[in-house]
C-alpha cells in the first residue's frame, strides 16, 4: 500500500488519522517535535514494525524550510496529511504563536513537496469550520457550505487578538489554495474543515494536554460544572474525531475529492446534553454532575443568528456517516477515565 506522511503526529486528530492509515495498510511516517513524542506514537502500535510506522523530527513548522527533509522518503510518499497547526487560546502574541506557524507551515510543506517529492499525488490539509463561518452571514436562515469563507483578516487580529485562532485557520487555508492556483504543482489538494471535535483520547496523552474540546467533557465529569452547568457557547456544533480521521483518508484516496473542501459536522450539542449522557451512562459519576436548577440555569447553546450548515458534500463524496453525540461522549469519557487510571 501507499507510503504516507502525516505532520504533527502527536496531535489529537493526527493520532486517529495514523490509526486509520495503518489499518488500511499504509506505511506511515509522521513528523514530531521531539524523539519522545515519536516514541509515544510508536508505543501506541506495539505490533507495527518501524518500516510501517516511523517518525522524523521537525522542531519548528514556522521555518520556511521546515519540511524540506521530511518529505524525502525511500520508498517515496504518495500522500501527505498536513495536520500540524497550533490550536489553543493561551497565546500572548497571536501573530507569532498562531498565524505564522499556521500559514508558513502550510505553504512550506506544499513548497517542499513540489521541490523534493514529485511522487506525491494528493495533499490533505486540516483546516476548520472557523475558516468557513462569518458573523455577517449568521442571519436569515443562511445555510453554510464549502463555498463560504470567513471574512477575517490579519488586520482584524491586530485590532482584536481574540480573533487569532480563527484568522490562523482562515489565512492558512487561503494560502494553501492560492499556492495551488499560482504554482500549479503536480499534486492535488483537499481540505478538511471540522467543527469542535470530541472523541477518544490517545493512550499516551496526559490529562494536562488533552485537546480543548475534550477538556469540556473532562471538566463536567470531574465536578467542574456541579454548582452550575456552564453556558455551551454560540450555536455549538460537534463532530467525532474518528469521523474526521476517516474523512482525511477518504479525501486522499478518492479521485473525486481533489480540489474540494469538506465540512465535518455531526450535529448540534449542548453542555446540558453532555451532562445527561454522562449521568445515564456512568452512574458512578452522578455525584459530580449538576442537577435541578444547577443544570437548568445553564448548559444550553446560545443561538446567535438563524443559520445552519450542510454536510451533504462530505456524505456524498467521502461517504461519511456521522457518529452520534451520545456515542462520541460515552467513548470520550471512557478514554478519559482510562487516562486517569494510568496517570
TrEMBL record:
Which molecular function terms from Gene Ontology are attached? oxidoreductase activity, acting on the CH-OH group of donors, NAD or NADP as acceptor
Q: Which InterPro entries does this chain map to?
A: Epimerase_deHydtase, NAD(P)-bd_dom_sf, NAD(P)_dehydrat-like
Official protein name in the record: Major facilitator superfamily protein-6
Looking up PANTHER family in the UniProt record yields: NAD DEPENDENT EPIMERASE/DEHYDRATASE, STEROL-4-ALPHA-CARBOXYLATE 3-DEHYDROGENASE, DECARBOXYLATING
Q: Where is the NAD-dependent epimerase/dehydratase domain?
A: 5-260
Give the keywords, sorted: Oxidoreductase
Q: Which domain of life is it from?
A: Eukaryota
Amino acid at each position: 500500500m501507499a507510503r504516507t506522511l502525516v505532520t504533527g503526529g502527536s496531535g489529537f486528530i493526527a493520532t486517529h488519522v495514523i490509526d486509520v492509515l495503518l489499518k488500511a495498510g499504509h506505511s506511515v511516517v509522521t513528523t514530531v517535535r521531539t524523539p519522545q513524542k515519536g516514541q509515544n506514537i510508536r508505543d501506541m502500535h506495539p505490533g507495527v514494525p518501524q518500516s510501517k510506522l516511523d517518525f522524523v523530527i521537525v522542531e519548528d513548522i514556522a521555518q520556511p524550510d521546515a519540511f524540506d527533509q521530511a518529505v524525502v522518503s525511500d520508498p517515496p510518499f504518495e500522500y501527505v496529511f498536513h495536520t500540524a497547526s497550533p490550536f489553543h487560546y493561551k497565546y500572548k502574541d497571536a501573530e507569532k504563536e498562531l498565524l505564522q506557524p499556521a500559514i508558513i507551515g502550510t505553504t512550506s510543506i506544499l513548497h517542499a513537496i513540489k521541490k523534493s517529492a514529485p511522487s506525491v499525488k494528493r495533499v490533505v490539509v486540516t483546516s476548520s469550520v472557523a475558516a468557513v463561518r462569518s458573523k455577517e452571514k449568521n442571519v436569515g436562515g443562511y445555510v453554510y457550505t464549502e463555498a463560504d469563507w470567513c471574512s477575517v483578516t490579519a488586520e482584524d487580529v491586530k485590532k482584536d487578538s481574540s480573533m487569532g485562532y480563527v484568522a490562523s485557520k482562515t489565512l492558512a487555508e487561503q494560502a494553501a489554495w492560492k499556492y495551488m492556483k499560482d504554482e500549479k504543482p503536480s499534486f492535488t489538494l483537499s481540505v478538511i474543515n471540522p467543527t469542535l471535535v470530541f472523541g477518544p483520547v490517545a493512550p499516551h496523552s496526559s490529562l494536562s494536554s488533552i485537546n480543548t474540546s475534550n477538556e469540556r467533557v473532562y471538566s463536567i465529569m470531574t465536578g467542574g460544572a456541579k454548582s452550575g452547568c456552564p453556558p455551551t457557547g454560540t450555536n455549538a456544533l460537534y463532530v467525532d474525531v474518528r469521523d474526521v480521521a476517516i474523512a482525511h483518508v477518504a479525501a486522499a484516496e478518492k479521485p473525486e475529492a481533489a480540489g474540494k473542501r469538506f465540512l465535518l459536522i455531526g450535529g448540534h450539542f449542548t453542555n446540558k446534553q453532555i451532562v445527561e449522557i454522562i449521568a445515564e451512562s456512568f452512574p458512578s459519576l452522578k455525584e459530580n454532575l449538576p442537577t435541578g436548577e444547577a443544570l437548568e440555569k445553564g448548559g444550553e447553546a446560545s443561538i446567535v443568528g438563524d443559520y445552519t450548515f450542510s454536510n451533504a458534500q462530505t456524505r456524498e463524496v467521502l461517504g461519511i456517516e456521522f457518529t452520534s453525540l451520545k456515542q462520541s461522549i460515552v467513548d470520550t469519557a471512557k478514554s478519559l477515565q482510562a487516562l486517569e487510571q494510568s496517570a
